[in-house]
Amino acid sequence: MTTTLAIANQKGGVAKTTSVASIGAALAELGHSVLLVDLDPQACLTFSLGIDPEDLEISVHHVLTKGVDPAEVIIATDDGVDLLPATIELARAEADLLTRTGREHVVKTVLEQLAENGVAYDWVLLDCPPSLGVLTVAALTAASGVLIPLQCETLSHRGVGQLLDTVHDVRRFTNRGLEVWGVLPTLYDGRTNHARTVLETIAETYELEVVEPPIPKTIKFAEAPAAGRSILATSRSNKGAQAYREVAANLVTRVAGTAKRG
Ligand code: ADP
Ligand code: MG
What we know:
Blueprint: E1 3-7, H1 16-29, E2 34-38, H2 44-48, H3 60-66, E3 75-76, E4 82-84, H4 90-98, H5 106-116, E5 123-127, H6 134-142, E6 145-151, H7 156-173, E7 179-186, H8 193-205, H9 220-227, H10 231-234, H11 239-261
Helix pairs in contact: 1-11, 3-4, 5-6
The site of magnesium ion has 4 residues, from helix 1.
Domain AAA: 3-179
InterPro entries: AAA_dom, DNA_Partitioning_ATPase, P-loop_NTPase
Protein name: ParA family protein
């Protein structure tokens, strides 16, 4: 069984991409097969896993809008995860898809196509762009769960309401089974009470689970993308890397629990 998780928040800079790369690498360390899908035209995920988007002739854009077989585009990375890479061309996909029938289902269809061809992953993590446009809606339509990375600062709750409105629309129209797995506190400064208070307020206001543990703010994250590897490889014992390992283990436990309950 594949678990497809969208990592979404229309705010930029909240560590969506970092979380996708790090949780993906942590799941791979646990022996799970993982596909990461870069759905952001800025291609930060692609770049951070050591692939220069400018070297790519075909990318996720061709898969979503031109019917190219995803298996031809997927790349195995040094972090033990497979990647469906993006390039800046994906910026056009948003406009291209806008007038297309079935646009909300493009990501779902691509994942189904892989499964039909016998390519099965334990996990598919979808790195969403910083907007609530077509690509984010398509990711939410393909996912069984959504994880919301959140930097716990004063105004972060405003975006959460809008994102949850989109989730409700997706549930109504395109994906009944979508579940909100919770917020993942990122860039967390546990030394201040402020971060904790903001997190509690958001969790209570929107009745959201908090995925543990919070990811601490550490300088090592800034260095990893330039090395083309996730922080789990560049700073193995860093406390941010450890926190992502614990988050990944908790996600695995959650899936195991759901499977048992049926
Ligand atoms: P998003 O995908 O939401 O835009 P990114 O994952 O690209 O966010 O992260 C934004 C910036 O924050 C990047 O420069 C990244 O290296 C940095 N960053 C992410 N997580 C942490 C962390 N825990 N501590 C310090 N810096 C971080
Ligand atoms: Mg990003």
